[in-house]
From TrEMBL:
Keyword Signal annotated: yes
Stretch forming the signal peptide: 1-16
Residue intervals of the Peptidoglycan beta-N-acetylmuramidase NamZ N-terminal domain: 42-240
Gene Ontology terms, MF aspect: peptidoglycan beta-N-acetylmuramidase activity
Domain Peptidoglycan beta-N-acetylmuramidase NamZ C-terminal: 244-394
Protein name per UniProt: Uncharacterized conserved protein YbbC, DUF1343 family
Coiled-coil portions: none
InterPro entries according to UniProt: NamZ (IPR008302), NamZ_C (IPR048503), NamZ_N (IPR048502)
Pfam family, one: NamZ_N
Protein source organism: Siphonobacter aquaeclarae
Keyword flag Transmembrane: no
Keywords assigned: Signal
Amino acid sequence: MKFLVLSLLISLQAIAGPPARKVVTGADQTNLYLPYLKGKRVGMVVNQTSIIGKKSSVDSLFSLGVNIVRVFGPEHGFRGNASNGAHVSDEVDAKTGIPVTSLYGKLRKPTKEMMAGIDLMIFDIQDVGVRFYTYINTLDHIMEACAENGKELLILDRPNPNGYLVDGPILEDHLHSGIGMHKIPIAHGMTIGEFAQMLNGEKWLPGKLQCKIKVIPVKNYTHDTPYELPVWPSPNLNTQQAILLYPSTCPFEGTFLSHGRGTYMPFTVLGAPLLKGKYAFSFKPVSIPGMSETPQYQDQECYGLDLRKYDTEKLRRSKQLNLSWLIELYNAYPDKDHFFNLTQTRVVGVFDRLSGTEKLREQIRAGIPEAEIRKSWDPGLSDYKKMRKKYLIYK
């Protein structure tokens, strides 16, 4: 009997294949870069996702004797406790006494004077793989500052939880903004290290500058590797479900529907007061300090879709953004003239900047079928995929 059970277990293991190897981030491979930091004055671009093991990478490297002379924090701040879009002030870190400079306040990149006191810059921030998430903009600004001042950038790479996904319209030139700086699709399918190589290779930095970069790659990772973030990347991406739905649900920020800000389930619920009677599910946004102080439809009941239990493996299998929710809710919305949040000129709005094109809004209004909308994203998407291959570190 024991022999039969053992044989069965061996057979099952053979079918399942070898166990998945543990993903090891660039930051966790300290043996590959600690000697490189010796004797250097180090600047660090980090936030709460920048960890070695379970400890802040700044705290860890500081305790190991690395000479960290300045920390730079992106949107949401160095410790990750600032609300979406909130101005972040400079400070001195209470734990280490290191000066912290915000790159989401008066500055978007370090000054020449700051760079003069730095020999090497480290970039270690968890991204989620979409064009409108501002950490890739921070990377662009840091690479520009390093290139201008002859400094090297060391990138401690991290997995992209949406790395399997390369989809959406390519950003059109006239829609360049703080939520879209480069001609890439909504979901770009790259890690920070790969994206940095593309910024250099395509000469996308201002003045076609070239930044000297060194990437510490993630170990045991491919773009299809499922990866659950150990630390949430921002206050409103506070669940794995929200992170995986984000490429599809963030564009709702450009509509008059709530996408869950003002709840503890942002980007996993969608709705509005005007949808009462059309959907049974409802939620009520409220003011939540550190997340959303003045959310859309504050203290009003919103009716719509509950995606908290949506099977995100469907997205992984399809390798596509979900457009059906946008089409469904537009068709259900009674005041279609006020579904998309446009500027006063009613020409270009937040939705257009998020999607990267005005065409998607126009196609949805015109009732164009989803398959036809997707077809219109080519050849731009196909060209991007070919270009992207040149800069991939992982399969």
